Amino acid sequence: MNIPGIILAGLGQVPRLETVTLQPPGPDEVLVRVAASGICHTDIGYMQYARACPVILGHEGAGVVEQVGARVTHTQPGDHVVINWQPKCGRCRRCLAGRRDLCENIQGTAAPRVFWRDEPLNVMLNAGTFSPYVVVPAEGAVPIRRDMSLEKAALLGCAVATGVGAALRTSHIQPGETVVVIGTGGVGLNVIQGARLALAGRIIAIDIADERLALARKLGATDVINSRELDPLAQVTTLTDGRGAEHVFEIVGQPRLMQQGLAMLARGGTLTLVGAAGREDELTFLPRGFMSRQQVIQGCIFGNIQPEIDLPLFADWYMDGRLQLDDLLTHTVRLDDVPAILAEPQQHGGIRTVITFKD
Ligand SMILES: [Zn+2]
Ligand SMILES: [Zn+2]
Fold it and tell me: The pTM is what?
């Protein structure tokens, strides 16, 4: 079928709305009618660092299964699904060792399914949800309950998975521990929610925008610091009686903020890198104190979640009020609006903008 899609033709260009051709799903694939797709920081970042162009953008999505391949058994037409952009292989050493979050062989479709100008098109993160239909590998469609709004469910697929996952699955925050979150956009606010769900003690949010900090407080931060007005390191030191924080999450992707995060760590504390730095960026720090203070730096992608277990769980948490998403979805737009938004993302405020595909 011929459908519209947002395509990045080359690095540094503004993505544009084009017509693409979608092939039917193979035997181990699923055709999903996309209901909603969030615009994530990574979609914007792709304009600078996509590995291959041209590429169809979008990865944070939810929709309804339209058709399944002959060997697909875990879902059927009509199911509501969240798109999982890390479909695991289940057969590599890490999968077999029980660390599917570290799968060495993330799955794409068996053959290209999206074509543009008669050529196969790259698909962002095995998803490409800036389009009303996607074909994904079977594991890329994770069924969730049907009574959750699909606009909210789209957020589960990246902002919630990454943020709540970072807090609960990557960092294993324990009750009473102190948590610092540097950067309170869609992902950072969900780290705060994860910390709240883990019964953290102090949850300290750092940002430069008062409206985001107000939302951080609403979602569970016990303390907020506007780093334009106050020195965040001095503030964290005071708030923790000089001990520092057991967990610091850097969401922005700036080495300067990572260094600041390292300086905030308690003995044995862990800095979790969630924000994507530039490919050439370097982080320098003094290893002596880091060694003797027994600290840890770790990377985090997709919150180290188990998508088939955690995405439906997050849907349940939203529906029973434990996870708050309503305030995160600040704008809904149409697919035609996306090129203008991506051309000037700084002009477009709010936390999360979601594209909806309703007729
Ligand atoms: Zn994302
Ligand atoms: Zn694997």
Answer: 0.96
